[in-house]
Specification:
The chain has about 200 residues and is an all-alpha fold. The chain contains ten helices and no strands. The model has no long low-confidence stretch (mean pLDDT about 90).
Length: about 200
Amino acid sequence: MFDQDEGAASLTLRERNKARLRQAMLLAALEVFAQSGYGSATVEAIATRAGVAKVTLYTYFPRGREELFRELYENINGELIENASQIYASEGRFADRVIALTQVLVKVAQRPLIGRFYSIDDPALDVALDDVRGRASRVWADLIAEDLAAEQQTGTVKTQVSPQAFAELLLGAMRSALSKAAREQEAAGDIVQAMTALLSGL
């Protein structure tokens, strides 16, 4: 998530230093958000954690806390969408692919800062993340629904439930499991086993 760009070698020293400073502020923001949530996190706390002046942080992130959270959230969205695209790029059974998605989400939950951050639920985020919240979930839901519909047509699965409704329910279960796993209230292995058992009746 915080890897340097492939073209970093061609940047000037000044540009590399700016990129490193920007990454340091994003990492500091991730730590503060994961610890304090969104509502209690402040620009002052993030700047202090990053070892920069508040004015410096605003130079890089003019919208402050909201912009930092949004960029971090979108980075994870992008990672989840890329992983899902790889899973569905090759042939496979419906249940196996859903289990693979579950494993991807569990791995996110097991990354302490990332898991706690991505599972933050705060009404104030409705404005901050208005057009990006749920972006990965929408992509995942469409992939799951299309896959289930295709297997229904070929008779590979017995169920004739609405593919979209089934996909939404699965995602709701996955997101709930992510939150619990991120807070170590549920073992990652148990979540994958439970999803496997859920899908076995199809």
